[in-house]
Write a structure and sequence with these properties.
The structure holds two protein chains of two kinds. Chain A is mainly alpha-helical. Chain A folds into two domains: 35 residues; 121 residues. In chain A, 85% of the residues lie in helices and 0% in strands. Chain A is flat, with a radius of gyration of 26 Å. Chain B is of the alpha+beta class. In chain B, 45% of the residues lie in helices and 14% in strands. In chain B, strands 2-1-10-5-6 form a five-stranded mixed sheet. In chain B, strands 3, 4, 7, 8 and 9 form a five-stranded antiparallel sheet that branches. The longest helix of chain B has 29 residues. Classes of the chains: A mainly alpha, B alpha+beta. At the A-B interface, α1, α2, α3 and α4 of A face α3, α5, α6 and α8 of B.
Chain lengths: 160, 412
């Protein structure tokens, strides 16, 4: 029997997508050497390899390490609080990553009306708002979560 | 001597990176968001490329006036949005990288090679695309050409990836169905086969909406975190393209309302080496058509009927700025040499060299009465950085084609 993922239309769609994709990849790969010299292509491949190494060898292991730390910290919190903590740190980390590149570019390529902002100060403000918003949300959730259990405890105490 | 088993080693490593938050359903949802942002980038990028290097069938929309402001603003904003989406998507499938053996068959090897190309190209494209908006070029290859060809590689890889993964995508498309299957598997006990949403990790509770393991986050919470992060990077940068977001513009390289005459500058007069020529009292604009040639001094141009236009200048790097321009209609200059209004032009800048010294203008812009040889900007004479003594301003064109420091206009 055909499952929904092996019906004729699905097989046909996969074939069309696969062939179109392969054609577009070939067009791009064959087009590169028409405008890039050998030294450019070597540079491009080197940068691609470095991008993958940096991502797979540094970014993901570091985020995994941070995640392990957060699991320990977050296990003492309500699930919603733990999620807010992780989400806030994720947002802060990605914004910091982008701003870090921006700050490096500012030191290298600042020109008239470009890269003129005080991005370091903006990043500090961003973190301040993020930390305050996350802390307020976590505080409210923890307080609300504690209230029913405290009530439950007091009821237990009044039982004979 | 005991030789370590690579399979056991990679399995142990994969266990280190295991997370109950990961699931095929998570990857499919992230993949949908990323595919959308990549498609927006690809189509808007092709539009921009077509305007600058028009094929014979290219169309040149001149309405609405903000069309290029919108398309290129979307291009850069979708590219920035793709950064957290790509990082999250790659995180969701990271254990796949550690599977042993790395290649099981020819088709499996080809699939992994195509994914490697997809990932490497995407990481590079987003990184260099972002840094290009900062006008900083630390890499040893030309940006524009590489960005264009890699776009084809990436979009092709996206289609191929969808083709390969279509059964898994379909099985995990509907969130309710996935959660029902996961719940069924959970009720059957841990010995049961995992639901379609699972790729790894035994603790399925977090992925099933039954509540995450202590300290972990659920699939929904993770997706919400990715959504908030994507929103944060877009909202704090898109103000360089869209005025209604400019109060939140904290991390974009450009800020609306800055620069001489409250308009940002891309190529400066120093970069273009035009300061002496442009400020020389001998400057004149030559307009030619066949054997006819007329020259217009700045005083001659000012003596012609002047028109005001409110038009945005929108740059390929994504920033844009609405401004008030005043000057002579280009069609009036074309008529002055006896050429029909619907003519194509070749416009030359005073720049001694550079890729945008020569600019071609299709007839759609020439006949448009809002296309100006601008002499004033925001109520005062053009600043040298904005193209003094005269520059082109037309609707719906990339800023690099709004030629500054005009020298000649040839009717073709």
């Amino acid at each position: 029997m055909n499952t929904p993922t092996t019906t004729k239309p699905v097989t046909a769609a996969r074939a069309v997508l696969g062939v179109t994709g392969a054609v577009l990849i070939s067009y791009g790969l064959l087009g590169l050497p028409t405008q890039l010299g050998a030294a450019h292509l070597v540079g491009l491949l080197t940068w691609m390899a470095l991008a993958v190494l940096l991502h797979d060898g540094v970014v993901v292991p570091l985020s995994t390490l941070a995640g392990a730390g957060l699991t320990r910290t977050g296990s003492r919190l309500q699930p919603a609080s733990a999620a807010i903590l992780r989400g806030a740190l994720m947002t802060g980390a990605v914004v910091s990553l982008i701003t870090g590149i921006l700050l490096k570019a500012q030191s290298e390529a600042r020109t008239i009306s470009a890269l003129e902002g005080d991005y370091a100060a903006n990043l500090l403000w961003f973190w301040a708002v993020l930390v305050m918003a996350a802390a307020a949300a976590i505080y409210a959730i923890e307080r609300a979560g504690r209230a029913p259990s405290e009530k439950g405890d007091s009821r237990q105490k009044t039982r004979p | 001597m005991h030789r370590p088993d690579p399979q056991k080693l990679t399995e142990a490593l994969a266990a280190r990176f295991a997370s109950p938050t990961r699931s095929t359903r998570l990857t499919v949802v992230l993949g949908r968001w990323l595919a959308l942002s990549f498609t927006v980038c690809f189509l808007t990028g092709l539009f921009s490329h077509g305007l600058q290097n028009p094929p014979s069938w290219m169309f040149f929309p001149t309405s609405p006036v903000w069309i290029y402001q919108l398309s290129q603003g979307l291009h850069v904003s979708a590219g920035i949005a793709s950064i957290p989406l790509l990082l999250a998507k790659l995180w969701s499938v990271y254990p796949e990288l550690l599977r042993w053996p790395p290649v099981k068959s020819l088709s499996h090897g080809l699939e992994r090679a195509s994914i490697a190309l997809f990932i490497a190209s995407s990481l590079l494209q987003l990184t260099t695309g972002l840094i290009n908006t900062y006008k900083w070029y630390p890499w040893p290859f030309p940006f524009r050409e590489t960005h264009y060809w890699l776009a084809w590689v990436i979009f092709g890889s996206l289609l191929l990836h969808i083709a390969v993964k279509l059964p898994a995508i379909m099985a995990n498309w509907n969130g309710r169905a996935v959660r029902a299957a996961e719940l069924k598997a959970e009720l059957k006990g841990t010995g049961g086969s995992p639901g379609p949403g699972r790729t790894d990790a035994p603790s399925a509770a977090g992925a099933q909406g039954l509540g995450p393991a202590p300290g972990r986050w659920s699939r929904r919470a993770f997706l919400a975190g990715v959504g908030v992060t994507t929103g944060a990077v877009v909202l704090t940068t898109a103000g360089q393209s869209f005025s209604w977001l400019s109060p939140l513009n904290f991390f974009a390289p450009r800020v609306m309302g800055t620069g001489p005459q409250s308009v940002p500058v891309n190529r400066t007069s120093a970069d273009a080496k035009v300061a002496d020529l442009a400020t020389s009292g001998q400057w004149s604009l030559a307009v030619t058509y066949g054997g006819t040639r007329k020259t217009f001094s700045l005083a001659d141009l000012r003596a012609l009927p002047q028109y005001d236009q409110e038009l945005p200048i929108a740059c390929v790097e994504g920033w844009s700025q609405m401004a008030r321009w005043r000057g002579v209609r280009i069609r009036d200059l074309v008529s002055a040499v006896g050429a029909p209004p619907r003519s194509a032009l070749r416009v030359t800048s005073l720049e001694p060299e550079g890729p945008y010294r020569l600019m071609s203008m299709p007839p759609e812009y020439v006949e448009d009465e809002r296309t100006l040889v601008a002499l004033e900007l925001n109520g005062s004479v053009l600043d040298i950085e904005h193209g003094y003594p005269a520059r082109i301003i037309a609707r719906g064109r990339p800023g690099v084609l709004q030629t500054k420091w005009l020298q000649t206009v040839e009717v073709l």
